[in-house]
Design a protein that fits this description.
The structure holds two protein chains of two kinds. By secondary structure, chain A is mainly β. Helices cover about 0% and strands about 55% of the residues of chain A. Chain A is built from no helices and eleven strands. In chain A, the strands form two sheets. In chain A, strands 2, 4, 5, 9, 10 and 11 form a six-stranded mixed sheet that branches. A five-stranded antiparallel sheet of chain A has the order 1-3-8-7-6, with no helix packed on it. Chain A is globular. In chain B, strands 2, 4, 5, 6, 9, 10 and 11 form a seven-stranded mixed sheet that branches. In chain B, strands 1-3-8-7 form a four-stranded antiparallel sheet, with no helix packed on it. Chain B is mainly β. Helices cover about 0% and strands about 50% of the residues of chain B. The chains are: A mainly beta, B mainly beta.
C-alpha cells in the first residue's frame, strides 16, 4: 500500500482560515518532507522534518511529526488564495535512496 | 542560480515512436531523480542517479524505459516504442546528496502525450 498518504484528499476553505493536512506512512523513516505543486507541474519543497524532531515552523507553515503514530500534519495558517495547490508528503524509507510520495491533497482557498 | 530545467516542455508523439526527455540539474548536485505523474496521481519513482551511476532502477516500468547521465550532469530518459499508457508528466529532480539529507529540487516537467 501507499507510503505517505495524505488526508483529506481535497479541502476547500475561505481565505484567512487555517488548513490542516495529514499524512500517514507505514515504514520507519529518517525524515518527512512536504511539497507543493501548482497546475500539475514541478513540485516546490516546503519543509523537511527529521525523525528526531516533533515540530517545525516556517513562516505560516507548521509541521508536526509523531513517529509513534507514523503520522505528520501540515498546518497552513491564515490561508491565501495563492495557497491553492496540491500538497504532497514524501518519506524516505529509512535507508532507501529514494523518496516515496503520497497521492497528494488538493487545497482550494476561496477569496 | 538556475534551477532544474527540462526539455521539451511538451511532447506529442505517435504510438510506437521513441522519445527522449532531457533534464539539466542544478549545477553541483550529485543526485538526480526521475519521476512520472499520471493525471491526478502522485509521483511514481522511476530511477535515481548518484553521479553517473544508477544505484536504483527499480521504478522503471518496463525495458522500454532507460536513462543515462553523463558528466555527472545532464540526464536523458528514453522511452522506446511508446504506448498510450506512457502519457504522463515526467518530472526530474536533483539534490546535493542523498534524499534523506537534502531536499529535492524539481524541474517543471515534460508533459508527454502518446496518441
Amino acid at each position: 500500500s501507499q507510503q505517505g498518504e495524505e488526508d483529506p484528499q481535497a479541502l476547500s476553505i475561505q481565505e484567512g482560515e487555517n488548513a490542516t493536512m495529514n499524512c500517514s506512512y507505514k515504514t520507519s523513516i529518517n525524515n518527512l518532507q512536504w511539497y507543493r505543486q501548482n497546475s500539475g507541474r514541478g513540485l516546490v519543497h516546503l519543509i523537511l522534518i527529521r525523525s528526531n524532531e516533533r515540530e517545525k515552523h516556517s513562516g505560516r507553515l507548521r509541521v508536526t511529526l509523531d513517529t509513534s503514530k507514523k503520522s505528520s500534519s501540515l498546518l497552513i495558517t491564515a490561508s491565501r488564495a495563492a495557497d491553492t495547490a496540491s500538497y504532497f508528503c514524501a518519506t524516505d524509507q529509512g535507508g532507501s535512496e529514494k523518496l516515496v510520495f503520497g497521492k497528494g491533497m488538493k487545497l482550494t482557498v476561496n477569496p | 542560480g538556475a534551477g532544474v530545467s527540462q526539455s521539451p516542455s511538451n511532447k506529442v508523439t505517435e504510438k510506437g515512436k521513441d522519445v527522449e526527455l532531457r533534464c539539466d540539474p542544478i549545477s553541483g548536485h550529485t543526485a538526480l531523480y526521475w519521476y512520472r505523474q499520471s493525471l491526478g496521481q502522485g509521483l511514481e519513482f522511476l530511477i535515481y542517479f548518484q553521479g553517473n551511476s544508477a544505484p536504483d532502477k527499480s521504478g522503471l516500468p518496463s525495458d522500454r524505459f532507460s536513462a543515462e547521465r553523463t558528466g555527472g550532469s545532464v540526464s536523458t530518459l528514453t522511452i522506446q516504442r511508446t504506448q498510450q499508457e506512457d502519457s504522463a508528466v515526467y518530472l526530474c529532480a536533483s539534490s546535493s546528496s542523498s534524499p534523506y539529507q537534502e531536499t529535492q529540487y524539481f524541474g517543471p516537467g515534460t508533459r508527454l502525450l502518446v496518441l
